[in-house]
Design a protein that fits this description.
With about 700 residues, this protein is of the alpha/beta class. It is about 35% helix and about 15% strand. The chain has a five-stranded parallel β-sheet, with helices on both faces. Helix 16 crosses helix 17.
């Protein structure tokens, strides 16, 4: 049997796990303690946006950066309130390259559907905001192709025309990106150097309303640092340093924060590198210092430098004396190039590992304190103790080793006394809590408003009834009214709870497979279309479930409705056995000979037309594993709750492969329909498929559909 080919729409809204997901989650969390207002100009995107200091490049502190490494358009939409809630003046959006680089969602339709949803929400919530959709940049890294990027850009341009947004063609200005070695615009054929960002900034300066600060003749300076660290360093080399600046130099934690926003001061500038914990080694930090401080000939010595570095080295196994020596080399280089600058050495935060904290982090911090005490113009700041939750990092501030939104607010509170001359104004705990709650409620409600827009409407398996969708859409305007008029957070949260429940009910109402009964059997295959296209197969009468490449009778199943009217028994064609709804988490699902006491539900998946398969209680969910688990079908879900709709292994395509009439007597049929493969009702009218219970005719047989 041939494997099914998924139409493009199947791939909408599917998500794949990514190695940098923890960074993305902590970045999104960091956004939730940052307000946006009507003067804000917000840059939204993925790592290509995240690697740049946009407000500095345009010398405009109203610019807000909301770029996140690895971000796909689904995530941008899910976190859209941190962009639009404050009704910003302008939004510059570039999203889609990671969609096109991720198997399962690498289609123009997927990108455009989510951008459309953003434009709809922006128009409803903040109609005065000017939206600029920037083209996806050229890249052939991974599975990305120039052809798909151009196709997506053409659709985005049409979308802008449809919704009154401004489309900006950057693709044609940056076609040399894939020539990473020779052109100087990129080191990896995907991300940008200063020279690439200079082209970008000059192209959009008229829309931003500010000129680009990069000198026209400036060249990339990386001091021997390559990759993403080197590309970000080239931007530091083109940014000016003024005598009243405070430079925050460091690794991943520093890069994750938007410090001029957190301190509400244009004098605080980030020089953080790395978007994955723990960040670069001290050798990279040392190489960065000359470029940061002396990259431009007109740079002044900054007023102060905050240094938070060495996490990678301290988390490793290098002898502590060597780590301290390497850190001291960084300090000495700063003092050499900026001898009048006040230097603050920041203690490293506690990690999630108590042993690492006691054996490595605390001794290192003690060395920093001693180092600062022995040097003129150098001061130690204890940024360990305020973040400690006993032997590990406090859960209020960290998820694992990543600092979260409230942690960034706490960091500014700890540092503020040392920046009194800079007149900083930090986010209080109360304000952070209020912002976090506000964004959470609004994102929940905003996500629910977009549900119906992505649902396929029709009579086919996995589609939705048009009247049901229309009834839901009738109340979407109520949701937009709340989002558009600054309703209190508690009102938004209360409305969101009921509205989200209706949205979930709508998504669960997709057309289910036909139920078999004593008069008629419908046999289906269950295919893991996003995970190697394997068919769920019974290994024996009382065996287990595993994925196989070919679909024989052991891979065919009928679904028998149970008395509750919503769950099914799943019965194998070859063996007549039932899928057992009882399975320990992370173990293989098995078969049983007798009918179980509970059944399975076919729920919606993240990918339209596909299903999740879970029990009515107990959290048992089908998951097609990979070769690492011999392609066995496990009971697995990311939350151990049976409600995983996004993992590729939890999403299945149901394919009707055979229909058998078992209990109807032969009767004379009209000759015109007696041998046709088309479905007919008993009046002789052709129908695309049975849409209601009753008796139909196909292939010369009466078929009962119930």
């Amino acid at each position: 049997m041939r494997k099914p080919l998924l139409p493009l729409l199947f791939l909408l809204a599917a998500l794949s796990a990514s190695a940098d997901e923890p960074f993305r989650l902590h970045r999104y969390s960091a956004f939730t303690t940052l307000p946006v207002d009507s003067n804000s100009i917000v840059f939204v995107g993925n790592s290509i946006t995240n690697m740049h200091e946009w407000w500095e490049a345009f010398d405009n502190p109203n610019i807000r950066a909301r770029g996140n490494s690895g971000a796909v358009s689904d995530e941008t939409l899910a976190n859209f309130e941190t962009v639009i809630a404050g009704r910003p003046a302008k939004v510059f959006l570039m999203i889609g390259t990671n969609d096109l680089g991720t198997s399962g969602i690498n289609t123009p339709d997927h990108v455009v559907a989510n951008v459309r949803a953003m434009l709809v929400r922006a128009a409803a919530e903040s109609p005065r905001t000017q939206i600029y959709v920037q083209s996806i940049l050229p890249s052939a890294v991974g599975i990305r192709t120039l052809a798909l990027e151009q196709q997506t850009n053409a659709l985005l341009k049409d979308l802008c025309t449809e919704y009154g947004a401004t489309y900006i063609d950057l693709y044609s200005r940056l076609t040399a990106i894939p020539q990473s070695t020779s052109a100087g615009l990129s080191y990896d054929g995907l991300h940008l150097t200063m020279q690439g960002y200079r082209i970008w900034c000059n192209a959009i300066a008229e829309y931003v309303g500010s000129a680009c600060v990069y000198p026209a003749t400036a060249t990339n300076q990386n001091n021997g640092v390559g990759g993403s660290y080197g590309m970000r360093l080239t931007t530091f080399g083109g940014l000016p340093v003024r005598a009243d600046d405070v430079l925050f130099i460091g690794d991943e934690m520093v890069h994750g924060g938007e410090w001029h926003e957190l301190f509400r001061s244009p004098r605080i500038k980030s020089r953080g590198t790395g978007w994955g914990y723990p960040g670069p080694p001290l050798s990279t930090t040392l190489a960065e210092i000359p470029v940061i401080l002396k990259g431009r000939s007109d740079n002044a010595q900054p007023a102060k430098i905050l240094l938070y570095a060495g996490v990678s080295d301290v988390n490793g196994s290098t002898a502590m004396a060597t780590v301290v020596q390497n850190y001291r080399a960084v300090v000495d280089k700063i003092r050499e190039l900026a001898p009048t600058t006040k230097l603050y050495l920041l203690a490293l935060h506690p990690t999630a590992n108590a042993t690492t904290n006691s054996n490595r982090v605390k001794p290192f911090n003690a060395e920093l304190q001693s180092m600062a005490a022995a040097l003129d113009g150098v001061e130690f700041i204890d940024t360990y103790t305020p973040f400690s939750g006993g032997s590990v990092g406090a859960s209020a501030y960290f998820k694992g080793n990543y600092l979260y939104g409230k942690g960034y607010a706490k960091m500014t509170q700890v540092l503020a006394p040392y920046l009194a001359e800079e007149d900083v104004h930090v986010v209080s705990d109360a304000e952070a809590d209020s912002l976090i709650a506000m964004y959470a409620a609004r994102n929940t409600l905003g996500a629910a408003t977009a549900v119906a827009a992505t649902l396929p409407i029709g009579e086919a398996l996995g589609e939705y009834n048009a009247d049901t969708v229309a009834a839901f859409n009738a109340i979407v305007d109520e949701a937009y009214a709340l989002l558009a008029h600054d309703a209190p957070t508690e009102d938004v949260a209360a409305f969101a709870e009921g509205f989200t429940a209706r949205a979930d009910a709508l998504r669960e109402s997709l057309n289910k497979p036909l139920a078999s009964d004593p008069d008629h059997e419908y046999w289906y295959t269950i295919c893991s279309s996003l995970r190697e296209g394997l068919y769920v197969t019974a290994t024996d009468r009382l065996g287990s479930l595993e994925g196989r490449t070919e679909a024989d009778s052991a891979a065919m199943w009928k679904f028998v409705m149970r008395d509750d009217g919503r769950s099914y028994d799943i019965v194998n064609r070859k063996y007549g056995s039932y899928v057992n709804p009882v399975a320990t988490f992370n173990t293989q699902i098995k078969l049983r000979s007798t009918r179980p006491t509970r059944g399975f539900i076919f729920g919606y998946a993240a990918t339209p037309y596909m299903f999740t398969i879970r029990t009515t209680q107990g959290g048992v969910e089908f998951n097609q594993t990979t070769s690492a688990n011999s392609y066995k079908v496990f009971n697995w879900s990311s939350g151990k709750d049976g409600l995983d709709r996004t993992d590729a292994g939890c999403q299945f395509t149901l394919i009707l492969v055979d229909e058998v009439a078992t209990g109807l007597s032969d009767a004379a049929l009209p000759s015109a329909i007696s041998h046709s493969p088309q479905w007919y009702d008993l009046s002789g009218r052709a129908v695309s498929r049975p849409v209601a219970s009753g008796v139909y005719v196909r292939n010369g047989q009466k078929v009962a559909v119930r």
